[in-house]
Amino acid sequence: MADNTPRIAVIGSVNLDLFTYAETLPRPGETVTGATLTRHPGGKGANQAIAAKRLGAEVAFVGCLGNDAFADEALSLMRTEGVDLSVINTFSDVPTAVALIMVGADGENLITVASGANGAFSDDYVVVPHADAVLCQLEIPVDTVMVVAEQVRGRAASLFALNAAPALPVPDALLAATNLLIVNEHERAAYGSQLDGYRGLLATTYGVEGAVLSKGGVELARARPPKVDVVDTTGAGDAFSAALTVALARGDAPGHALEFAVTAGALACMGAGAQPSMPFCSDIAARMV
């Protein structure tokens, strides 16, 4: 590894996504036939781990799975990409998390998530690998994320990044321990005045309008994504979060880091599914010339 290769630890969710595609979505009590089924590894944590790895980082992932048939499949792409999976917790009595996603011909969808092992990821299973940056999300219990943040805070050289999604109630102490907070515009609105006193780096994304990076209410950078042919927006936020964390961990200036991140998020929209469509550094470099 080159000296400037950042080490990123992603601690969070991993699951298997089961997609059905049909002409119409069922109404309550209705059965729809003729659908097709696809399966993809998913979970915001796993998505971000793959994105960080493809963007040039050395990545370790920490998560929880069940001892069932879905576990290996949920890890398959991370394993193929070379993510360090040496700290994976396996439960004998809790299943691997599964997302059931029904998609209609018009793109509308219905989603049900069985949190399984992600929801059982308690602080007893927290291990924080040595890293330049640690990235979490809120698809595992908030109390567990708080324990991670506290452990990282004891390491002066580590950056703790939190993609506060989905928007959930979080204690002020978690925000105080967060160096980089990443939200979209809807999550920013949901947290409201709680973020008024936040003093770390705050990245807010606005879809096709781009993103803003600020600190203590002062704007540091603003960037717009390149225009792309959108196929599927799933995972765009995960690509952004991973890219911004990687760029800041390797010492990029705020403006360049934000441009790198919005470009990654845009390129992730060009393929179907979250993990398969995560871009590589070469893809981003070609768009930032």
Automatic annotation (TrEMBL):
ATP binds at N184, T205, Y206, G207, V208, E209, G210, G237, D238. Keywords: ATP-binding, Carbohydrate metabolism, Cytoplasm, Kinase, Magnesium, Metal-binding, Nucleotide-binding, Potassium, Transferase. Pathway: Carbohydrate metabolism; D-ribose degradation; D-ribose 5-phosphate from beta-D-ribopyranose: step 2/2. One of its GO terms (cellular component) is cytosol. Its EC number is 2.7.1.15. Residues 7-279 form the Carbohydrate kinase PfkB domain. PROSITE patterns: PFKB_KINASES_2. One of its GO terms (biological process) is D-ribose catabolic process. K(+) binds at D232, T234, A268, G271, G273, S277. It catalyses: D-ribose + ATP = D-ribose 5-phosphate + ADP + H(+). Substrate binds at N15, L16, D17, G43, K44, G45, A46, N47, E139, D238. Catalyzes the phosphorylation of ribose at O-5 in a reaction requiring ATP and magnesium. The resulting D-ribose-5-phosphate can then be used either for sythesis of nucleotides, histidine, and tryptophan, or as a component of the pentose phosphate pathway. HAMAP family: Ribokinase (MF_01987). This is Ribokinase. It comes from Eilatimonas milleporae.
